[in-house]
């Protein structure tokens, strides 16, 4: 388990499972989330999963997530939970499904 700091708060994170991905994809379809909201929802899912004492809403999470260096934070979190937010979930850098 690794720790990541978002704003002034620290959270524990670990790799998500294939079941997490399935549930997140279902959630994306159900709520018709665009890529922007889906990326934040993905990170929030991991934070809420591995930090039982913290159950943030999407708005609460986005409020503490700083825009400055957001791209670096996306990479840092993605490497821990097993997602590359730039190429897409389950896709390689050339866009092909792995």
Write the topology of this structure.
Elements: E1 2-6, E2 9-13, H1 18-31, H2 35-50, H3 58-64, H4 70-81
Antiparallel strand pairs: 1-2
Overview of the structural elements:
There is one protein chain. The chain is mainly alpha-helical and 98 residues long. Helices cover 50% and strands 10% of the residues. The protein has four helices and two strands. A two-stranded antiparallel sheet has the order 1-2. It starts with a strand and ends in a 17-residue tail after the last helix. The mean pLDDT is 88.
Summarize the structure in short.
By secondary structure, this protein is mainly alpha-helical. Helices cover 50% and strands 10% of the residues. It is built from four helices and two strands.
Mean pLDDT: 88
Number of separate structural domains: 1
Percent of residues in helices: 40-55%
Q: Find the structural class using helix and strand composition.
A: mainly alpha
Characteristic terms for this protein:
single chain; 2 strands; two-stranded antiparallel sheet; 4 helices; mainly alpha; 98 residues
């Amino acid at each position: 388990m690794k720790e990541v700091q978002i704003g002034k708060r620290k959270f524990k994170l670990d790799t998500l499972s294939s079941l997490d991905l399935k549930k997140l994809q279902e959630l994306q379809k159900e709520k018709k989330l665009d890529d922007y909201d889906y990326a934040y929802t993905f990170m929030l899912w991991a934070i809420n999963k591995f930090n039982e004492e913290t159950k943030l809403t999407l708005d609460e999470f986005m409020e503490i997530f700083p825009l400055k260096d957001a791209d670096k934070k996306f990479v840092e979190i993605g490497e821990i939970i097993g997602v590359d937010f730039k190429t897409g979930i389950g896709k390689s850098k050339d866009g092909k499904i792995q």
